[in-house]
Design goal:
- The structure holds 2 protein chains of 2 kinds.
- By secondary structure, chain A is an alpha/beta fold.
- Chain A contains 8 helices and 10 strands.
- In chain A, helix 2 crosses helix 3 (about 110-125), helix 2 runs parallel beside helix 4 and helix 3 crosses helix 4 (about 140-155).
- Chain A has helices at about 50-60, 95-105, 110-125, 140-155, 170-190, 200-205, 235-240, 245-265, and strands at about 5-15, 25-35, 40-45, 65-70, 75, 80-85, 160-165, 190-195, 210, 220-225.
- Chain B has 11 helices and no strands.
- Chain B is flat and about 75 Å long.
- By secondary structure, chain B is mainly alpha-helical.
- Classes of the chains: A alpha/beta, B mainly alpha.
- The interface of A and B includes residues 58, 83, 88 and 92 of A.
Chain lengths: ~270, ~270
């Protein structure tokens, strides 16, 4: 699982100008590495700037300091090599599931026959085969997220970015989607960076957990989920009984609580 | 033995946020019109109004029939429809692309919006005298009035709808490798289009309003001109017939737009899974 360094963030910071000529620092001196084929989770309390970090990796926002490199190249703008799945549903209403999944390939000039084959493969992977010709309005929230995931993967990015992708789903759908992510990782071997504030999700999916502190966000702890012994657990309930799970969950909850209490002091 | 169902309340006439039976929805809708026509019908015999000013319904229908069969009213209707359709097509051809460009790009908005917004506040009918001097008495001044009555409003509404296309849709396309031109045509335009068509439907109703103003003030043909001729001869039945025809045409065009909306955007229907 620990291949060469894929992405590296060095001294990354981000300030926003707000009304009244002031600036707010959202992210300060963030450093971490993500390795090839790794599932990296950016975890932290809400409003800690972890989504801002992800958006900078996507190239949707520019850092005000430091640099982010992918395969040794600076990230300067959005690109198909860094596909992003958002929390809100982004399937295009006017396209069928099939056309949605083909959309990215079409932008990049993939020939029609290959588009169809690759779309079929990823529609099967996310188990939407029966809904290939349905429009998004006819799909449930979980299905719409699966369309978004298939569309991004079919475009063959070298890095899959996910911003709280299952945050809007109900509990049962959420863990179904998490198990789906495990099988996707096993099939495709993509490198993934996912933002979440759900500790269970982080422990179940993550090979690496980068804990970001509350505002201004910076890396508080960079952990690997060694208790899983370098393997991926396929079922959510099974991970709960792996020795070491409970300890790591407790440590992270403590971190989270300390972060929360800071806010109470400010208030 | 009484079942629990026996105690369950049936529907009531006045309940908050509750449905009433479908047949009553239809019956009540018809009833309002029936009462309206009944009052209209009996108001002359009962001496509430003079028949000269308020002709009874059947007299209006007779007048409408006579207009259509003997007085070539159809060509007046044709002229009016032609004016609305041509001017509206021209206004849409300018306003829709302009509105989309303004909604999509801040630079285009910064250039056009102060100009376009200001023109909205100049009442279109106030241009009638100058339009008559510029274009004479043909179709041109009417087409111009309808055009300026619609184009600024439509452009602004289209701009708003385009601006409210969700950022995540555009950002998704960016991270899939889309360039600006691709994103305009494959995300921004299709995402805004359903609302653009609704805006067009609403502005078409405005177009009919300006048409009547134009034809009443300065025209020798068209539905409004017929009504002004009828006024000269105290033919109130013909005036009311004209009002009915304009209302019916407005309804028809609105209906056509609804049908077009359903045909153009079938994917918006949630059922059919």
């Amino acid at each position: 699982m620990n291949g060469s360094v894929k992405l590296s963030a060095r001294g990354v910071s981000k300030s926003f100008a707000v009304a009244g000529g002031q600036t707010i620092q959202a992210v300060r001196d963030v450093n971490f590495d993500v390795h090839e084929n790794e599932f990296c989770v950016l975890l932290g309390p809400s409003g800690c700037g972890k989504s801002t970090v992800l958006r900078m990796i996507a190239g949707l926002e520019d850092p005000t300091g430091g640099r982010i490199e992918l395969d040794g190249h600076d990230i300067l703008r959005p690109d198909r090599e860094r596909g992003m799945v958002f929390q809100s549903y982004t399937s295009f209403d006017w396209l069928t599931v099939q056309k949605n999944v083909e959309y990215g390939m079409k932008l990049n000039g993939v020939p029609a026959a290959e588009r169809r084959d690759r779309a079929d493969k990823f529609i099967d992977l996310v188990k939407l085969t029966k809904f290939r010709n349905a429009y998004p309005k006819q799909l449930s929230g979980g299905m719409k997220q699966r369309v978004a995931i298939a569309r991004t993967l079919a475009n063959e990015p070298s890095l899959l970015l996910m911003d709280e992708p299952f945050g809007a789903l109900d509990a049962e759908t959420r863990w179904n989607m998490q198990e789906l992510m495990i099988s996707i990782m096993e099939t495709t071997g993509t490198t993934v960076i996912m933002v979440t504030h759900d500790i269970e999700e982080a422990l179940f999916l993550g090979d690496r957990i980068v804990f970001i502190s509350r505002h201004p966000g910076t890396v508080l702890q960079d952990m690997t989920t060694d208790f899983k012994g370098g393997k991926r657990v396929r079922r959510k309930e099974d991970v709960l009984t792996v020795p070491g799970y409970a300890e790591m969950e407790r440590d992270i909850m403590k971190l989270m609580r300390e972060q929360g209490s800071e806010e109470e002091q400010e208030a | 033995m009484p079942t629990p169902d026996a105690k369950r309340r049936t529907w009531r006439w006045f309940d908050y946020k509750k449905q009433i039976p479908a047949r009553w929805v239809i019956a009540l809708g018809i009833a309002a019109w029936a009462i309206f026509f009944a009052i209209w019908e009996i108001s002359v015999p009962l001496g509430w109004v003079t028949p000269l000013l308020v002709p009874p319904p059947q007299k209006v229908l007779t007048a409408l029939w006579a207009l259509l069969t003997e007085r070539d009213f159809l060509s007046d209707i044709g002229v009016s429809i032609y004016r609305v359709v041509v001017s509206f097509a021209a206004a849409s051809a300018v306003a829709v692309p302009l509105g989309i460009a303004m909604g999509a790009f801040r630079s285009v908005e910064a250039f056009f919006n102060p100009f376009v917004s200001a023109w909205r506040y100049l009442p279109a009918p106030s241009f009638i005298p100058i339009l008559l001097m510029w274009f004479g008495t043909g179709d041109m001044p009417k087409l111009a009035l309808l055009f300026i009555g619609v184009v600024w409003f439509l452009a602004t509404i289209v701009m708003d709808h385009t601006r409210s296309v969700r950022a995540e849709l555009i950002e998704t396309a960016l991270t899939l490798g889309g360039n600006r031109k691709q994103i305009l045509w494959t995300v921004v335009v299709p995402a805004a289009m359903p609302n653009v068509v609704i805006a067009m439907r609403q502005m078409l109703a405005v177009s009919w309003t300006y048409l009547v103003i134009a034809e009443i003030v300065a025209s020798s043909n068209g539905i409004g001109a017929m009504m002004m001729r009828a006024k000269r001869f105290l033919h109130t039945d013909e005036i009311i017939a004209g009002i009915l025809v304009i209302g019916a045409l407005g309804l028809l065009f609105d209906y056509l737009f609804r049908v077009a909306h359903r045909l153009l955007f079938p994917y918006l229907e949630e059922h059919g899974r």
